[in-house]
Amino acid sequence: MSKIMRLIVLLCAMLCSQTICAQNAHRRTLGIDEMFRLADENSQRIKTFVTGTETAAEAVRAAKAQRLPDMDVSASASYLGNGRVWNRGFRNGQNVPIPHFGNSFSLQASQVIYAGGAINSGIALAELGEQMANLDLQKNRQEVRFLLIGYYLNIYQLNNQEQVFKNNIELTKMVIANMVSRHKEGAALKNDITRYELQLEQLNLQLAKVQDARQIMNHQMVTTLHLPENTEIIPDSTLLSKTVIPQTENKWQALATEYNVGVEQAELSVNINKQKLKLERSSQLPNLALIAENHLNGPITIEIPAIDKNFNYWFVGVGLKYNISSLFKNNKKISAAKLSVRRAEEEHSLVLEQIENAVHASYIDLKTAYTELQTCLKSTELADENYKIASNRYENELALLTELLDAANMKLDADLGLVNARINLVYNHYKMKYITHTL
Fold this sequence. Notes:
Outer membrane efflux proteins (OEP), disordered N terminus, two-stranded parallel ribbon, alpha+beta, four-stranded antiparallel beta sheet
């Protein structure tokens, strides 16, 4: 088989493969609420944070277990060698026989009564850590949703751009057909047809680029949602027809203060550092515990000769422990903990400022998007009217081809601008909801 034939066979196989894939593609209309639900269920990124919350919950249970009593059991068996006794000057030594089998068993139990607040502070820190893990999950969920909103609106935008290009391609083909008829009648130049055919090729190229970009965006969204690879996502066609209800900036600011996870995390960070300060201070306080022990040892070697018997004794009591060195060793740690509290409080104030600025900027962008949409609506209306006038003038030989081309380009730009403006308004609305974490 020649190289040319092999190339032809390969190209045919590729075309057939693409055709089969296109036929096997599963088209799925997806609304935003359903998309969020699928993300919560399938997103690998969210799953990692869910595991983080489970780990934090287990850490709380481990911290609470420190309140339980401590119990130790030990047992041993040993071989004892004979003893030897000297006088005080290490003279006149003599061997002392000792029973060679030795055994030891002990049971020790203690219950902390007071530890300077260390146990309670440890539990509080673990609980605050669990709250932080839950906030991390919420924040991550908002980030994943906003990422998907970007994919979703891009697909929507590319679909609309594709339709705009197709409409303009059909319009251009009609104009070319009309020109061909007029050329046969001697009323149009061949050069005019060539120029419009060139424009048709450019439109086809732009259409191919849009379709390729949509395929890339669809793959990213399918991967994020863990849908079958052959799924083709179709956005909800009613999305742009839904009215975006305007709200005042003060309303958005209030929502951000109440729901933004960053604010809650900053507040929680202050509480965590306060608990760490308590934990450092607890090291300068005494520890008090109930203790109980039971011992069984043999043989009794404190007597000479040794007594080959088991000796059992037990006791209960109260134990007090105080680390005096903490009075001069932990001062620096306590000072560092105080500074950490102050820094956390300052970071909390900074977060409030940053979110306030972000909400203000996004609110201005949202207002601009409203204005842009109104402008694009008027521009599209004027561009359509201008194209109709230019088309009629050209058909009546009252205008040059360049005027018709300019009118067609203006119409294309206006149509694309309107699509982009509608998408931009919806995007800025969801961006505001993302900043306030109300997605």
